[in-house]
Amino acid sequence: MAENKTNVKTNKSSKKKSALGRGLGALLQDSPQKGNAETEKAANPVAGIFEIPLGEIQVNPFQPRTHFDKEALQELSESIAVQGIIQPITVRRLADNEYQLISGERRFQASKLAGLEKIPAYIRTANDQQMLEMALIENIQRENLNALEIAHSYQRLLTECDLKQEQLGDRVGKNRTTVNNYLRLLKLPPDIQAGIRDQKISMGHARALINIEDVDRQLAIYKRTVAEELSVRKVEALVKALNNSGEEKERPETGTMDPVKKYEINKLQQKLASHFGTKVSLKADAKDKGEIKIPFHSTSDLNRILEILELI
Length: 312
Prior knowledge:
The protein is an alpha/beta fold.
């Protein structure tokens, strides 16, 4: 009798465990499950982690990244050769034995370099627009992305994926103000955008420069920022002074001058002094009238200056 009771208890426990397993499976049917692509993709073609041959995977035609650092790719390849793939790539299934990358191209390319034959991958269902959206969002989440690359990715999500700014903020985990600040960078002149891309100035510098309406003045302060390695606070103060002087409408009699123009005159004065090998005085008023004085200390010094001017 004791033996029969034990068997009944065991059977009940087994049935209970089996039922619980089915319940979890129903709740987590989209959760990652280890498997083999050949044996499991027919039963579960849109969820799970599968080992897929590299030769069956096409690159993502919507990939927003156009450049992969060769040295970094080689380092990742060496790491994969030792450690394997820690984070699976994501693909969509096009047909039997045919897949297309959604995200993870660096891991995909590095795995090829490492000589792997298969790679672990999540299989998802996605149309072309979703492919683009997922690729762009993954790109945005990279740590080494500069502000301009983020801005371009945001713009593509708005235009090509037909998202509104609030929807975009939800997708990338940013508030609407932050998203808008990045998008405003695309209104800056090409030279300044290149400066952001090449990390000559930071996002903070760029946000200050956006507040200048005149393009020439923007460029003048940008060039000064790069040349003198100005801090964000100094650029903000310079922009504030510039905007305040514009609001007050300069009066010629006060001698007030546009800060950017004053900077340009000082730079020109330095160039003239270097060219003539003597101190040069360059003055200009708010109406762009002024004078240049080139002092000389002797007849020979005067002749030297005249020769430079090609007057003798």
